[in-house]
Amino acid sequence: MTLDERYRLALEGLAQLYPNADTELIYHDPFSLLVAVVLSAQCTDKRVNMVTPQLMAHYPTPEAMARASVDDLLALMGSVSYPNNKAKHLLGLSQRIAQEHHGIVPSTREELEALPGVGRKSASVMLAVCFETPAMPVDTHVYRVAKRIGLASSRATTPLAVEQALVKRIPQAQLIRAHHQLILLGRYICKARKPLCAECTLHDCCRHYATAAKKQSAD
Q1: How many CB atoms lie within 10 A of CB 76?
Q2: 138/120 Cα distance (integer angstroms)
Q3: Whole-angstrom Cα distance, residue 24 to residue 40?
């Protein structure tokens, strides 16, 4: 099977599994999405969605959050992972957006990555989800699934390398949807410890499935 064929079959299979794939983070504007994205680092979307409604009710704008203290934020988001660092990041990015961007969340990668707590992956999420700019954010799910299926080679040992492999082969018009589809596949079927291969529709193109099937037949 050629790599092009693998990609074609994978995209077709993902479309069957998740035809309407979208983010599971709950948000209502660019700022609430940015807050949710920062909180979601090494934390489940389910947990973040439990925290953000109350947090955003108290601090709905960058200007409002910029006037808070770290302790104020911690009181509302203590249940997320790494709350101290994330509270500092949220306070810092809110102050910068209020002071340098007139309260408007920036829409370019360079400006987003200049904000405290916003790295390449988080900036890519904002570009794809909020600003509908073709991007392929690579989180732990996308990284794992892409390598298992064979969309990225074993030599792609960093999130950036996996991102570059995916962007090279997936049409720009499909990047955003494919990103969400890969996340959902990794979250609910192609799980880290025990992938649920019986529930997957990517058998024809999945390198991991082919290897497992070959090993089972040999045994």
Answers
A1: 19
A2: 9
A3: 11
The single residue of 29, 72, 88, 139 carrying the catalytic annotation is 139
- pTM of the full structure: 0.91
User: 212 falls in which pLDDT band (50, 70, 90)?
Assistant: confident
Phi–psi pair at 206, nearest 5 degrees: -85, 120
Amino acid 61: pLDDT:
98
Q: Per-residue DSSP letters for 70-132?
A: HHHHHHHHTTSSSHHHHHHHHHHHHHHHHHHSTT----SHHHHHTSTT--HHHHHHIIIIIS-
Least confident of 145-154, 170-179, 205-214: 205-214
pLDDT confidence of 207, banded at 50, 70, 90?
Answer: very high
Q: Is 139 a catalytic residue?
A: yes
- How far apart CA 123 and CA 42 sit, in angstroms, is 16
Quick one: which H or E segment has residue 62? helix 62-66
The Cα diameter of the chain in Å comes to: 65
Mind listing the pLDDT tens digit for each residue in 151-202? Answer: 999 899 999 999 999 999 999 999 999 999 999 999 999 999 999 998 999 9
Q: At what angle do helices 140-149 and 207-218 cross, to 10 degrees?
A: 50
Find the catalytic residue in 88, 121, 204, 214: 121
214 is catalytic: no
**Chain centroid to CA 6: how far?**
23
Q: How many CB atoms lie within 10 A of CB 46?
A: 9
